[in-house]
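User: I'm putting together a teaching handout on how sequence relates to shape, and I'd like one worked example. Could you take Radical SAM protein from Geomonas anaerohicana, show the sequence you're using, and then write out its predicted structure as C-alpha cells right after it?

Assistant: Happy to. First the sequence, then the C-alpha cells directly below it.
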Amino acid sequence: MTKVPFCFYPFYFMEFAFFGKVFSCCPAHVKKEIGNIGTQTIAEIWNGDYIRFMRSELLKGDWENTCDPSCPFVQDFIHNNKFQSLDDLVKNQRITRSIAEEITAGRTTLTSMPTVFNFCNSDICNLDCIMCCCKGMKSDTDLTKKAYDDAFKYLPTLKTLALSGSGDPFACTDTRNLLMSFEGHKYPETKIQLLTNGLLLPKFWDQVKHNNFSFIGISIDAASKETYELIRKNGRWDDLLRALDFINSIRERFSGVMINMTVMKHNYHEIEKFLELGVKYNFGVSFNEVRVEGNASQDLDIFSNVENDDFPKFVSIVKEASSKKYPVYVNWGNLSSYTKWGC
C-alpha cells in the first residue's frame, strides 16, 4: 500500500447521523456506517474494523467496495484522475501534520484522532422541503447529547465542528444553545462550519457571533420566488433575499460562503439563473442531485430514468452552463458526469 489515496475523509472525518449511526463521509456516498455512538465511543469507532478496511481500500487506490459512485470525489477520480491535495488539507487546517504523516506511511490504524466532526443528527427545521429525506427520522436527544459530550473531549485538537446537514442549526434548540454557549476563545483553532437555510441567522446572529466560524453553506434550491416557495415550504423568497444581504454584510466572518441547489424536476431549468445569483452576491455555487425514494422519486427525480422528457433538457442546460467561465467558484458535484452524456 504505497499509493496516496484520492480521498482522505476516513482519515480525519466523522459524521454523526440519525439512530446513532456514524459515517466517515456523507452517508449517501459510502456503502455503510463505521459504527454507532449509541453503543460505542468515538475512540472505539475511529479504529474499528470497517473504517480500517476503508482506509486500506483507499490506500490501494480502490473505492468500489466502500464508496458510492455518486460521490463527487469518486467522479473526479474516475473522469479526471483527480486527487485531493494532502498539503492543501494541512495548509487549510482540515487535518494535522501528524495525520498527514500517518497517511503517507500507509497506516490504517491511526494514533491521531479525527479533526472534523459533522453533526447531522437533528431533523428539527423551520422549513418543510419537498425533497427532504429526514422527515420522520425523529431525533433522539439522548444520542445527540452523548455524541456532543464525547466529541467535546477532542476540542483541543479539533479543527472543524460542522452544524448541521439535516435540520437547521438555528431551528434546533440544542444546536442553537451550543452555538450561543460555546467558548470559542478557549479553542481558537476549532472553527464552526454552518450548513443552514439562512433564514434564521439574522435573528440569532448577535447571540452567536462570538464564535470562530469557517465556511457557511446556504441551501436555497431555486433562483426565483415561485420555485423557492414551491420547494422550500414555509420559506419566503423575500425573507431569503434579506438573509442573503445580511450574510453578505458579515461575510468577512466566514472563510467562504456558498449557496447550494439540490437539482430536481422542479428547478433544473433555473441552473443558469442560480449561477447568476451566486455571481450577484459573489458567493460560491454548488450543485447536487436530489436523492429521494418511493413515490416521491417519480415527482422529483430526473436522474434514475434517462428516458423521461426532462433528462435531455437537463443535460443540455448543464452542458451549456458548465462550458462557461464564472467569476465565482462553482462545484458541479456529480452533475459533472452528465456533461459527457451523449444526447
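A couple of points you could highlight for students: The longest helix spans residues 237-249. The mean pLDDT is 90.
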